[in-house]
Amino acid sequence: MVWSVRVILVVLALVSAAPLHAVQVDEILSDPALETRARAISHDLRCMVCQNQSIDDSEAPLARDLRLLVRERLKAGDSDTQVVDFMVARYGEFVLLRPRMSWHTAILWAAPLTILVIGLFAISFSVLRRSARTPMPEAATLSEAEQMRLRAIQDSPFE
């Protein structure tokens, strides 16, 4: 009984735990609205060191510098779009965790759908080709002796 209560408490603690961010106390802005905007922008920018983490989640020194840069731009009065455009101009579109839709990123957006369509076409072509090539065999009729043996098997009790 005690064991199950402990397990439930551990599971509840893990589920209710807030996600940790790498933002240090000295980085947090005094204005809650600006801090919320900074967190939203930082969440969408890639850490150039970690590459699969946002700068909001990364503890790399470069991520800290980028978080501070975002906050400086916001304090200077830039809009969210201007801050993101500044970061893209400085570091390229790789800094965005979700690339923008444009002609040079169209393959990123179209590739999964294209691969899915090609895969479905290949599967359907294979099924149609196989069904056209091998006709279904007709059911063979049983001889009189085979029918009698089958009835005997069906009538016998299972042991």
Q: What number is the mean pLDDT?
A: 82
**Low-confidence parts, pLDDT < 50 over ≥5 residues?**
none
Could you say what the CATH architecture of the domain at 18-103 is? Answer: Orthogonal Bundle
How helix-rich are the residues, as a percent range? 55-70%
Give a description of the structure:
- With 159 residues, the chain is mainly alpha-helical.
- It has a domain at 18-103: Helicase, Ruva Protein, domain 3, CATH 1.10.8.640.
- Helices cover 59% and strands 0% of the residues.
- It has helices at 2-16, 32-43, 61-75, 80-91, 106-133, 144-155.
- The two termini are 46 Å apart.
List the SSEs and their pairings.
Layout: H1 2-16, H2 32-43, H3 61-75, H4 80-91, H5 106-133, H6 144-155
Supply the key terms.
single chain, Helicase, Ruva Protein, domain 3, 59% helix
Sum this structure up briefly.
The protein is mainly alpha-helical and 159 residues long.
